[in-house]
Design a protein that fits this description.
By secondary structure, this protein is mainly alpha-helical. The chain is about 60% helix and about 0% strand. The model has no long low-confidence stretch (mean pLDDT about 90).
Length: about 80
């Protein structure tokens, strides 16, 4: 899960990457990320094991966000 999020952030344009002072939720709101962060937070902080299906859904949400960015016209 964490690796998916790191790879996602690295694929973003520099202005959309997480700033050192931002919480995860503040960053997700700023970049209008629609992915549910609950799975990530559960595995990262609560050490809950999630199902492969939930992990795949999280990855798909991150990938979908990147695809939307590619389709948006430049500012």
């Amino acid at each position: 899960m964490r690796q998916h999020l790191i790879q996602f952030e690295q694929a973003l344009p520099p202005q959309q990457r997480r700033r050192p002072f931002e919480t995860l939720s503040a960053w997700a709101n700023r970049i209008q990320l629609d992915a549910s962060l609950l799975s990530y937070l559960e595995t990262r902080y609560d050490q809950v094991e999630i199902t492969p299906q939930r992990e795949e859904a999280f990855k798909q949400q991150l990938d979908a966000h990147l695809l939307r960015l590619e389709k948006e016209p430049p500012l």
